[in-house]
Amino acid sequence: MERINLFGDNEPPVDSTAENKKKERRTVAKPAKKTASFEKKYERLEKILDEIESEDIPLEKLTKLFEEGVELIKECSAYLQKARLTIESHLEEHDGSYTIKGMETAGGEES
Known about the structure:
Strand 1 (about 90-95) and strand 2 (about 95-100) form a beta hairpin. About 55% of the residues lie in helices and about 5% in strands. It is mainly alpha-helical. The termini are far apart. It contains three helices and two strands; from the N terminus they run H-H-H-E-E. The chain has a domain at about 40-100. The chain is elongated, with a radius of gyration of 28 Å. Helix 2 runs antiparallel to helix 3 (about 60-90).
């Protein structure tokens, strides 16, 4: 069954067959964006700092670089915080020194 376009716009008629609906569902999903590694973000942050410190930059560009730098600092800080928490979850503190959970201490005791 063909649809009639009453409004005069140039949209093609909609094919409502099951096969066409399956194709639409397949094309809707987008691949996930790959996020940059901590090292890449830190490297970019260093480049931003070098650029801000070394050049006579127009205010608009300086503002954009600053905003990008602030976002990178937030992302790097969150990454480091997560890493710190992960490391701490594997350590135990005994009298100011740290040992890995489940490992024997110098006295032969298991932590």
